[in-house]
Write a structure and sequence with these properties.
- By secondary structure, this protein is of the alpha+beta class.
- Helices cover about 60% and strands about 10% of the residues.
- The chain is built from 26 helices and 9 strands.
- Helix 1 packs across helix 3, helix 15 packs antiparallel against helix 22 and helix 16 runs antiparallel to helix 17.
- It is globular and about 75 Å long.
């Protein structure tokens, strides 16, 4: 429903925005959501209801205990939306809250109860039910910190006005409820993919239903979501003006584009140059974003992007036309980064806020940065040396892609596309490079890589899924998603077989290239790592052979606990170091054991032999004086 007196005529042109929401469409979506929830609850509650009904107590106390049990289980198992971000107290940003109260009053919307900050370039409006008081709901505004740091007050006011439009009477509760329902369903759909030890049978059953229902419901509700975006744009424009709203939308897209380029091209150099995360991250990023006016090439990508049935938001071109603002006008008004940021205007002490933000950013990334720095440094030095020598090997192409030089990676990959030994990886590199450059042809290269060698299916289809908006239509997306899930399942099964062979020492030494060995061993020389080895093993699964690379790590228990690390997170970070340095079709896994637990005797014997022979499979040589728990010592003595 549009605001009274507002024109509902479609703006002529190549694009056509969806019509406004209607009572019939809202009722249909609500009915679908309710039906899905009923089926979900039936799956979850059926076993408890059956147990309660056959319980002997039912004969004596009637059905009431059973009903109470079912009600309790229903309450506990409801999909719950977790609100991300950090809360901003009113005392820290009184001007921001004052602006919010003023805009909400003008829009006849309820005041925002809470503002939370996100790390990404995004903003959102959430109507969050109070967990134990379902008749109440909090209105939460999510704001990305980069918006406050790099956009001016006018742009962020327009973004906020749009989000307040979602809170306004024009949408009521349905849109927010549908958003929460869709998000909960999509989250639940991915639940059953973990190991059976981590996910219960009931959760797997509910997830199986969600994987069928969630995509179908999402695809239908996305059209409603795009209509709501147009309405929120219109409500926001009523507060700040159509031109200001159009400028803010264009500025937001340009900021996202430049930040993505920085992460792809400049962050790897920063990781290579600095052993620790920089203390002045925001200032460095602001300097990197100083690119002047938007280039013709970058603007063409933004202007030509078109949404499809899987997008929750309309395209920039559609939204600009909805405000009757030409792309040239919007482009000319873009200022990224702004001379004076919105945060500096609204915060009581913005420099102190930026300092705290940088300190948190540094703290959150220090562990992973220390692992990645040696890899990035060696990787960059090796790439520069190969480039200076005019090398055109597959290694050079791989390193060009890793260092953000997509154009060089594409040229090198194309030169090797007919080399039978490296054809699959060359096509993968060309595809990844072209996609990084915004070229749809990269999808065809990835398909060619998968066709050339099935081992590239998971990496290739995962990359296609990241750029699925470039696929021709929903049928192609569903095909790629189905093939990706099948490849991921096969790969996970092969990974389980690979790890199962480690305790029995069914592995052989892996001798990495000299510079890769230096990079990985330097990255793993951390206080928590007592010893590290690199091994390999081939496994056959479902008619396919998977080449596996393994890191066998011994971790110091006391140090590990004092640094509040988790075994899973540290293993994943260690795997990422090696994975980045070997071809993407390899299985890369970490097998870990603590110094307070004994190693399986066959594995202990093999690793000890490697140490005694000074085998290059040893990445971090164990210290003979390393203290061992009595149980470990007894196991080693037999």
């Amino acid at each position: 429903m549009s605001a009274p007196g507002r024109s509902q005529a479609l703006i002529p042109g190549r694009f056509k925005r969806p019509g406004h929401t209607t009572a019939l469409s809202r009722a249909g979506l609500a009915a679908l959501a309710v039906a899905g929830l009923l089926v979900y609850h039936a799956i979850v509650l059926a076993p408890f209801a059956l147990i309660a009904l056959v319980n002997p107590w039912t004969r004596y106390f009637g059905p009431w205990p059973a009903l109470v049990l079912v009600a309790v289980v229903w309450w506990v198992w409801r999909p719950v939306t977790v609100v991300p971000g950090r809360v901003v107290p009113r005392a820290d940003a009184p001007a921001l809250y004052a602006a919010l109260d003023e805009m909400a009053g003008r829009l006849a919307a309820r005041q925002v109860d809470e503002v939370r900050l996100l790390a990404e370039v995004n903003a959102a409006a959430m109507r969050v039910p109070v967990r134990w008081q379902p008749w109440r709901a909090r209105q939460v505004l999510l704001l990305g910190e980069p918006l406050l740091a790099f956009l001016d007050e006018a742009a962020v006011r327009a973004v906020i006005a749009h989000e307040l439009g979602h809170f306004s009477r024009h949408h009521g509760r349905l849109g927010h409820w549908l958003y929460r329902t869709r998000t909960a369903w999509l989250d639940l759909a991915g639940l059953g993919q973990g190991s059976r030890d981590e996910v219960s049978l009931l959760e797997r059953g509910a997830a199986a239903f969600a994987r069928v229902f969630a995509p179908w419901f999402a695809r239908i509700s996305f059209l409603h979501a795009r209509r709501c975006e147009f309405e929120a744009d219109a409500d926001g424009a009523a507060l700040v003006g159509p031109r200001a709203m159009a400028t803010a939308l264009a500025t937001l897209e340009v900021l996202q584009q430049r930040l993505a380029r920085w992460q792809r091209e400049q962050l790897p150099r920063l990781l290579a140059d600095l052993p620790e995360p920089p203390a002045d991250h925001t200032a460095r990023l602001r300097e990197a974003l100083q690119q002047g006016a938007v280039s013709d090439e970058d603007w063409a990508r933004l202007e030509q992007a078109e949404p499809d049935e899987w997008d929750t938001h309309p395209s920039l071109a559609q939204r600009l036309q909805a405000h009757n603002v030409s792309p040239a006008e919007a482009r000319a008004a873009v200022r990224v980064p702004a001379p004076r940021s919105a945060g500096a205007h609204w915060w009581r002490d913005w420099p102190a806020f930026e300092a705290r933000h940088d300190a948190r950013w540094r703290e959150e990334r220090t562990g992973a940065w220390r692992l990645q720095h040696p890899r990035r440094r060696h990787e960059r030095l090796r790439w520069l040396a190969l480039r200076a020598a005019g090398d055109v090997s597959i290694e050079s192409a791989r390193l060009a892609l890793a260092n953000g030089d997509s154009a060089s990676a594409v040229r090198a990959g194309e030169a090797l596309a007919n080399d039978e030994a490296h054809a699959a990886e060359a096509r993968f590199i060309v595809g990844a490079g072209r996609l990084a450059l915004g070229q749809r042809a990269g999808l065809d290269d990835l398909e060619a890589a998968v066709a050339a060698a099935p081992g590239w299916a998971c990496a290739g289809r995962a990359l296609i899924a990241q750029h699925e908006h470039l696929l021709p239509g929903p049928a192609e997306r569903r095909r790629n998603q189905a093939l990706l899930e099948r490849a991921a399942q096969r790969r996970a099964a092969a990974a389980a077989e690979l790890l199962a062979g480690v305790p029995a020492a069914d592995i052989t030494a892996l001798h990495l290239p000299e510079w890769v060995h230096a990079a990985v061993s330097e990255a793993l020389r951390l206080p928590v790592v007592a010893a590290a080895w690199c091994a390999q093993r081939s496994v056959r699964h479902d008619g396919r052979v998977y080449e596996g690379n393994l890191l066998v790590l011994r971790l110091r228990t006391a140090q590990f606990m004092s640094e509040r690390l988790t075994e899973e997170a540290f293993s994943r970070q260690a795997e990422d170091v090696l994975r980045a340095l070997v071809p993407a079709d390899r299985l890369v896994l970490a097998w870990t054991a603590f110094t307070t637990e004994p190693l399986p005797l066959p594995l202990q014997a093999l690793l000890t032999r490697w140490v005694c022979e000074a085998d290059r499979a040893c990445l971090v040589v164990p210290d003979p004086a390393e203290p061992l728990a009595e149980g470990v010592r007894a196991a080693l003595l037999g």
